[in-house]
Amino acid sequence: MASRPSSPPSPVRSDVSNLVRVMESFVVAMQQQNASLMQHNTMALQQLKAARVSAEAQQRQYVELMNGGARISTDHFYIPPTPIHEWSLENFLQHHPAKFCGNTSADEADQWFRDMERIFNAKNCP
């Protein structure tokens, strides 16, 4: 008997095999995309970790400076406050200030005021 000629592929079988190929290509594309996303996430996590470590180091330095670490390194810049010299009435009277009586002219009062300012400035009075 003669063998039967092979029948042409049925449209259903060809559609199924096309669908399988399309789905396989989708799976491959999704696996590649997943691998790429995982790589990006890993890099982002490494960058975040490096930023966190750097921020923690800066915070430690700041806390050390605030807790007095800067005092040790900046003592050579320390300028002691100038002592305040107190002076008495006798000391003030040594400058022979003019006496003020309330019945003078405005110009004389202004001159008296300037004289007093000059004495206070000479005594470094704020």
Radius of gyration: 47 Å
Proportion in helices:
55-70%
Shape: rod-shaped
User: What's the story with the biggest beta sheet?
Assistant: none
Low-confidence stretches: none
Q: Which percent range describes the beta-strand content?
A: under 5%
Report, as a whole number of angstroms, the end-to-end distance.
131 Å
Helical/strand content category: mainly alpha
Taken in chain order, the helices and strands follow as HHH
Taken together, the total number of domains comes to 2
Tell me, rounded to a whole number, the average pLDDT: 81
Compute the number of helices.
3
E-strand count: 0
Description:
With 126 residues, the protein is an all-alpha fold. The protein folds into 2 domains: 12-77; 89-122. It is built from 3 helices and no strands. It has helices spanning 11-74, 89-93, 106-122. The longest helix is centred in the middle third of the chain and has 64 residues, at 11-74. The mean pLDDT is 81.
Search tags:
126 residues; single chain; 2 domains; mainly alpha
What's the short story on this structure?
With 126 residues, this protein is an all-alpha fold.
Give the SSE map.
Layout: H1 11-74, H2 89-93, H3 106-122
